[in-house]
Each structure stands twice: as C-alpha cells, then as structure tokens.
Amino acid sequence: MSNIILVHKMKILEQKLSRIDLNLLVSLSVLLKERHVGRAAEILFITQPAMSRTLQRLRDLFDDQLFYRTSVGISPTAKALELERILPETLESLNNILSSEEFEPSTCEQSFSISIPSMLSHNVILPLFNLLHKEAPNVQLTESTAKSNPFELLEAGTLDFAIHVAKDIPPRFNAMFIGTVKPVIFARKGHPLVGSEKATLDECLEYDFVALHVENNQSAKFTGPVEFMLAKKGASKEPIYKTSQLQMLLEIMENSDCLFVGPSLLGSSPDLINRFKPVYEFNLPKKDMIEFFLLEHKRSENSKAHQWFKSKLLNQIEKFY
C-alpha cells in the first residue's frame, strides 16, 4: 500500500514539475542576489521588460509578490527569503545531475567567489589567478574581503568559499583547517625600532598603529588584530587608521612610523620582505593562537568543479605555511 501511495505522489510531483521552466529558478536566483531588476537583466543578457515579464511568471508560479520595488531596487518578501535559503542547494544539485561527466577545467565556465583576508590574498590570489587563467580560461573569479560572519553568504550562494577564523562551525558547512598564524608587529625597513636591540611591547606602544578592517560583527571573536593581540598582553591601543585595502595600509606604513599587527607569514612575501621587518613577536599560548579554516557549504562537496577549484586554492595557501 505504501508503494502505491509513493508512486501516486511521485506522479503528481512529476506532473507539477513538468509545468515549470527551470530557467525561472535561475532568474529568481539572480534577482535574489542582485536585488535589482535592471542588473539581473544585464547578467542574464535579456532586456529589462523581458526580466519584468519573467518576474511576473515567478509571482504566478509561487503565488506570491516575491519582491516589492524600492527607491534603490527591489526588496524580497518573506516567501522570497525562504526560497533564497534553499535555492542555491537546489540549483547545485541540478547542476551535479546535468554535469555527471568527467570534469574538464579547460571547458569549465563556472564562476567562483571567495572571501579571503587581505593578508592572505596578497600572496595567494595572483598566483591562483594565473593558474586558473592558464588551466581554465573561461572560469570567473570574484574576491571579497574577509567577513566576520560569512555563513549567511555561503548559505545564500553569494560566496562559494570563505577563509575564516571561527572554531564553532555550523554542521551544514564543511571546514578544513588551514593552519595557525603567529602574530607579529611589523614596521617599515627604516623605522627607528628596526636594527636596534629587540624591541619591547612598551616601546612599540609609543608609536601609532594601523590595521586591516574586517566587517564588524560583535559576535566575532577576532574582528581587530591590534586590539585583540594587545588585550591578550593587558595593553590597549586603538589604531589610528583602518582599511580593507592591504596596499593602502602598506603605503601609509612606508611613509610614516606607524606599526602593523599581522601574521608572521606576511614577512615571507617576496615583494614585502625587503620593505617591512618584524620588530616584536607575540608569544601566546596555543589556545590564543589564530587558526584559519576554509569554509564551504556542504551542497558543493560533490561538485567536481568546486572541488577542483578548492584543491587549486589550497595548493597556493599551503606554499605559505
């Protein structure tokens, strides 16, 4: 009896799905990411009137308004937000079904997005880009700065991967331990503290600090390396300048006596080793060391394209550990 019911339910499901154009789900995914009808039309290479007609078909399909117009774009309804939560995994599953053949990088047209701290990006992204451009010339790569809470973006499919410092990872995500970094205070090559006897923390605190900015989130343990590291030593020093752009931070350091708290591996970068020198090393217990993890949503663990990209990314990261 149960088999008969199951067959009947499957038949109804098949009949219902047969009336759905799967392209509508792709359009919905783009609308949810862009929150703008015009930009969604550009991405899908259709006119704005055609995009508006597609939106109306989506409203009819889901019997919901889905989006309301605002002065800056469109705002999703509760139903649309619910769909946003499950749609990335659904599309990824469909992609895996349709792409069961052997993965070939040279023909891959996948887009990958990654959130990575600027201090790692400086050493990793350029060689990764060169490798991707050589092996998979049609692949697109989008990089964004580190997020103190990347989980919602990974859930929504806005991010494919994120390099993160949190240890408490929700079960729907895969987390691969990358390594532990040793925090160091850096100064420009001609800084007064460089070349003298080993500097003390008190001597360093006589100078101003600059810092890399991470998207603020009060629940994040490690949002500011300067404040975090100095607090561990019972000291306090508010950075006079914060930025998400590592190059700008380095330019300011080279033209001032400002100091910077960063990972020791930054000093091994070929183009930085002759410009900046470590002047103080934090000796912290293991429990207070900074651990980096590579995060991904579990929906991509069976995607050959994602796992290929992940392996290339890890290969570049491992060169600096």
Structure in words:
With 321 residues, the protein is α/β, with parallel strands linked by helices. It folds into 3 domains: 2-98, Orthogonal Bundle (Arc Repressor Mutant, subunit A), CATH 1.10.10.10; 105-179 and 291-318, Periplasmic binding protein-like II (D-Maltodextrin-Binding Protein, domain 2, 3-Layer(aba) Sandwich), CATH 3.40.190; 183-288, D-Maltodextrin-Binding Protein, domain 2, CATH 3.40.190. It is 41% helix and 20% strand. The chain has helices spanning 2-17, 22-34, 37-43, 48-62, 78-98, 118-135, 151-156, 201-204, 225-232, 246-254, 304-318; strands at 67-70, 73-76, 111-115, 140-144, 161-164, 173-181, 183-188, 209-212, 241-243, 259-263, 276-281, 290-297. It has a 5-stranded mixed β-sheet with strand order 4-3-5-12-6. The chain has a 5-stranded mixed β-sheet with strand order 9-8-10-7-11. A two-stranded antiparallel sheet has the order 1-2. The N and C termini lie far apart (60 Å). Residues 216-223 have low confidence and may be disordered. Keywords: DNA-binding, Transcription, Transcription regulation.
